[in-house]
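Q: Give me the 3D complex with biotin.
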Amino acid sequence: MAVFVFKKMTSTNAEAKNPCYAHGDVVVALEQTAGRGQRGNKWDSAAGQNLTLSLIWKPDFLPAKEQFLLSEAVALALVDTLAQYKVEATIKWTNDIYVGDDKVCGVLIEHDLGAEGKLARTIVGIGLNINQKEFAEWVPNPTSLALLTGSEHNINEVFEKLYDSLEARYKMLKSEPERLQADYHSHLYRLASEHTYKLPSGEEFVATLEGVKPSGELALRHKADGQLHHYLFKEVEFVIAQRGR
Ligand code: BTN
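A: Here is the predicted complex, encoded as structure tokens.
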């Protein structure tokens, strides 16, 4: 494993696509000029205040249809890291990290397929807010480790804890995938409670989150018909009240 630190770059996920990187390597940027988020969003992070990195994994043992285990491992590693700072975080499906209704970390995972339906490479892009206290107006409900704990933190120290947690959860993925899935389930944001969700059409409905299938589909029991419905990423979104600031 090697860590490559860049002062400034467009996006660590873009850089991590370079075939020179090996399994376990990490690309870190002190500043990203075009940080990418999920659903085509931008990722906003003040220079030098947070962790913006991409980890390269080569999970060539894992069938592509089991790729959601990697999302689970990453999300749990982030929860584990924050727990070391006494911050109790939850996982907003698929792998946003929330404390209450505030987002402390975003994850952008990109896979490359290999031979025989296996995964050749996974780029795990992580944006973990650490010391930033003010965010752009358009960022919905942001928070940071400093805001949550009331003090600033050494970014390298957080990185080391995160890297160790990622390694531990990756090992668990190989040896005890059922336990990984169970841990993911128990840390889900809004698990077993009734909330509002939104379809891409804009239509809203009330449902109870019952879990996530091993394929990664979200299981919501609709209040209106009492039935369990399954959703792929981008087929549904959580409705979360925006905090004024
Ligand atoms: C999201 O919540 O929308 C995902 C955000 C992911 C941001 C990280 S920052 C490091 C890596 N490089 C990127 O361009 N994006 C990810």
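A quick observation: Residues 11-13, 32, 35-38, 41, 43, 52-54, 96, 106-108, 125-127 surround biotin (CB under 6 Å).
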